[in-house]
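User: For my dataset I need records formatted as: sequence, then C-alpha cells, nothing else. Please produce one.
Assistant:
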Amino acid sequence: MMGWIPVALLAVPLLGALVLLLSPHAPRRALPAYGLIFSGLTLAVSLVLLATFDHGAPARIQAELDQPWVPGLGLRLHLGVDGISLPLIVLTALLTFLCFGYLSWGGARAGGGFMSARPRALVFTLLVLEVGMIGTFLALDLLLFFVFFEIVLIPMYFLIGVWGGAGRRAASIKFILYTLLGSVVMLLGLLLVWAQTGTLDIEALSASHGAGLPRSLQILAFVAIGIGLAVKTPMWPLHTWLPDAHTEAPTVGSVLLAGVLLKMGTYGFARIAIPVLPEGAVAVAPWLGAFAVVGIVYGALACLAQRDLKRLIAYSSVGHMGFVLLGFATLTPVGVNGALFANVAHGLITGLLFFLAGAVKERYHTSEIPELGGGMLTTMPRLGSVLTFAAIASLGLPGLAGFWGEMLALFGAFQPADGLPRGLFLAYMVIGGLGAVLTAAYFLVMLSRVTHGRPRAQTRRPIHEHPVEPLASPARAATTATLGPAAQIVPDDIRRYELLAWTPLVVLILLFGLWPGLLLSLSTPPVQTLLGAIS
C-alpha cells in the first residue's frame, strides 16, 4: 500500500528538474524558492516514510514496489526500504534540502550561490543528483542499483567542473575517470552474478545467501564489485581523486559528496556484496580489513601534513571510511552495525564540517590554515564554537555521534566472525585504535591553529558584501579596542541563514550520540539477516 512513497521520493526531484529543463526562461529570482520547494517536498516525503515505517520489523522490506521494467530481459522496477536504507534516505533528503537552503537563504554568496553563473543549471544539477542518490538506496534490482549509482556521476562532475575553484577542471576529470573505471569493474561483477543465478533481484539473492554460486566465482565477483564500491567509498589506495574533488568543489558539492556519495559505496557492501556473496566476503575480509586500517592511519597522517582546511577534512574522510570498511570486514553484527552507524554519523559531522570550511573560506578568502591566523574564538566566537564542536564530534568524543561507529567497528575486530583469523584482526584493532588517537591529534592541532591564540589584525574583506544582516558578535567591540582600526574589518560571525542550515545537523549529532539506539534498533535486525549465512 505504501509503494507510492519510493516513487514519490524519485518523482518529486525528477519532476522539478524536468520542469526546469522545459522552462528555459524561468525567472532568475524564483530559482532559490524553486529548489527549496522541491527539495523540501522530497524531505517531507522521506519523513512520511520514516513515520509510517514499521519500526518493529526493520528487517522486512517495506514500502515495496515491484513492477516489470524491461520484460524481455526480465528487468524489474523493484524499490523498497528496510532499516539499513531508511536512515540514508532521510539523510540524503535532509542534506539536499539544507544545501538548497544554504544557497537560497544566503542570497548572493561565494561558492556557488544563486547569483553566480548559471543558477538555473545549478538547481537542475542538484535535483538530478538527489534522484540518483535516493534511487541508489531504494533499488532492489542489481541493474537498477547500477543505473542510479551511475546517475550521480554526471551532475557531480558538472558541480565540481562548473562551480568549483581554480583547479576544478582537473579535479572533475580525475573524479569522473576514477569512478567510471571503478563502475566498469563493478558492472562486470554484477553481470557475473546475473549470468550464474539468472536473477537480478537483490532481495532473492540475499535470501539465498550465495546458493548456486561456487566459492571461486563468489570471490571473483566480490573482488570486482568491491573494487567499484571501494572507489566510491573511497578506500586506500583508490582514494586519490577525493582530496582534489573536495578542495575544488563548491560548498554544497563538498557537503553532498562527503555526506551522501561516499555512503553509496559502503552501502553497496551491506546491500549487495556481503549478503549475496558470503563465501567471497569471508575470503576477502582479511584483505579488506588490511586496506581499511592502512586507510585509517594514512588518512590521519595525511591530515597532520595538510595546510588547507578543506583538504584536511577530505583526508579525514579517508580515515573515517576506513573504520566503516573495518566494521564490514569483521562480518559480525557488532562490526557491521558500527559501520552503518558510522555511515550516518560521518554524513552529519563531515557535512557540517564542509559547511563550516566554506564559511571560513568565504570570510577569509582562503582556507590555508597558516593564513587564517588563529583567534577565531575571539573574533568570531559563534563560528569558532561550532567549528570546535564539529571537530570534536569527528574525532570521536563519547556522547557525540562520531564515537559509536568507530568504537563498535574496533570492538567487532576484537572478536571477528568464525573463519576469520582473530590474531590478524586484533592487530587491525590496535592499528585502528592508533588511528583514532592520530585523528584526535590532527583535529586538536587544527583547532589550536585556527580557533585559539591571539587573532591577527584582519585586513581582508569578505569575498562579497552580504545583504543578510549578520548575528551580532559580542566580541566585536572588544576586538576593535584591542587590535585597533584593522579589527573593524573582521568578517561577520554566524549569519542567520547559516544558523538555519547548520542547527539540524548539530541537533542530530547530539541526539545520535546520546541515544545511539535510535539508529542501532533500525540496523540490528536486518544486519543479523544479511549475515545469516556467515554466522
